Amino acid sequence: MLPLAILGFLADEPLHGYQLKDRITGLTGHVKPVSDGALYPAIARLEAKGFVERRPEPGSGAAPRQVLTLTAAGREELDRRLREPTQTEITDRNRYFTLLAFLHRLEDPEAQAAVLRRRLDFLTAPNVAFFFDQDGKPVRVENAPTLFQRGMTQIARATSKAEREWLDAAIAELEAAG
């Protein structure tokens, strides 16, 4: 998720590391706050691959600030990652939302729709239960042993239903545009 977010935000404009950290934190919120210990090594790896360039800029203090810029190779990598997301980027909600945040960067509506179809296929596959009985069989929502487990399952179902409805509408809109 972190490399995709870095590439995606730098596709908008060059940023300082702290600006990038703020944008990523805004995207992921409290769910997955980004630490300096994760961000700066990720930037260094992208820089080593030639996807990001760093250039000094005079700062307000004595030390120059580092401005991060996406390279042409970085734009190609962003495009590739958006066109060909990993299965985890489709199935994990937080990673998928990061992908979704930058999917507008793909200029081809059919390519965008293909990514959304993958998510829809995942959501319409037979559901995996959150809870199982002593024999390992899935527990139906109405039979979940606690109020909270029933609530968790009910919320997940409602969220999934709303997302499927949005995906159907978005795919139809993209197909009409393509």
Structure description:
By secondary structure, the chain is mostly helical. Strands 1-3-2 form a three-stranded antiparallel β-sheet. It is globular and about 65 Å long. Helices cover 62% and strands 8% of the residues. The protein contains eight helices and three strands; from the N terminus they run αβααββααααα. The longest helix is centred in the C-terminal third of the chain and has 31 residues, at 147-177.
Number of helices: 8
Number of strand segments: 3
Query: What is the end-to-end distance?
Result: 28 Å
Structural class: mainly alpha
What characteristic shape results from the CA principal axes? globular
Average predicted confidence as pLDDT? 90
> Roughly what percent helix?
55-70%
Order of helices and strands: HEHHEEHHHHH
What is the percentage of strand-forming residues? Answer: 5-15%
Q: Uncertain segments of ≥5 residues (pLDDT<50)?
A: none
Order of strands in the sheet with most strands? 1-3-2
Rg calculated over all Cα atoms: 20 Å
Main β-sheet description: 3 strands, antiparallel
In short:
With 178 residues, the protein is mainly α.
Protein traits:
178 residues, mainly alpha, three-stranded antiparallel β-sheet
